[in-house]
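Go through this one:
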Amino acid sequence: MIFKETKDKPKLLNQVRMALRTNHYSLKTEEAYIGWIKRYILYHNKRHPNEMGAEEIKKFISFLANEKNVSSSTQNQALNAILYLYKNIIKKEINFVDGISYVKRIRHLPTVFTREEAQKIIAELEGVVQLFVKMLYGTGMRLSEGLQLRVKDIDFEAKQITVRDGKGEKDRITILPEKLIEPLRGHIKKVRNLHLKDLQKGFGFTVLPYALERKYPNASKEFIWQYVFPAKSFIYDKERKLKYRYHIHESVIQKAVRSAIQKANINKQGSVHTFRHSFATHLLESGVDIRTIQELLGHKSIRTTMVYTHVMNKFKGIRSPLDNIL
């Protein structure tokens, strides 16, 4: 238990959690920020952050670099979490933290599957997981974006998918592959039947984003708001005393893809996210312009998308001098 909760004021970490949710931060970011704030406080022997400042922040962030050997992105996330605490909860201005030992950022090229490798891995998958991974590879969506997809966000006529609340809380449109239209239609039909059975049992609820549940009390039972890839079992919300169906857990997809990569004998350090990298690279190799790919991926900066120009097969046809030796 970190710091006392009074009748009028919740615990410090609960205040952070509420502020993050009010500002629509993702659940992953919320858990990461809470975790870093906890570590910061414990590192300084449970002193209240209000009693500390720039010097203590510097010591902790430098400790992560020098003793824990974290990556630059991890170090930045920890710093952002602590600064968020001071700015939004404690209301204490921390203008600049001088003298931090920063980790040097190393830019790694993304791992990319060839078309043949992607096909082999997908062939090792089955059922709903296979359909889901095909969708990720065919649309360029992130794992979380695919899991959070709702029935209403697939437009079969326009052959496009609306990705809601992507990175940076932005909506975008991506392509719906023609090969997925009929399999997805069939899958959604099964999801509808499952939803009807849930309704008959007195359930059929799902989680709605932001304040939509208060604005539209019955919307959580409407089919269009159901997840395209629902979980097999229900989740019980103690606060709302409500049983609802959430989407498949990300670990189900991650474990299945790791296993499929091994079975397909692909000697690359790939993951679910590698299908997103492969989507972008293969489009680039097919002649799709970089700006279009940027839009499909939802990248804020073209520089982020440009990394795929370094991993595309642009040296095809070039012979090494060694190959010309008789």
Notes: The first helix runs from residue 12 to 22.
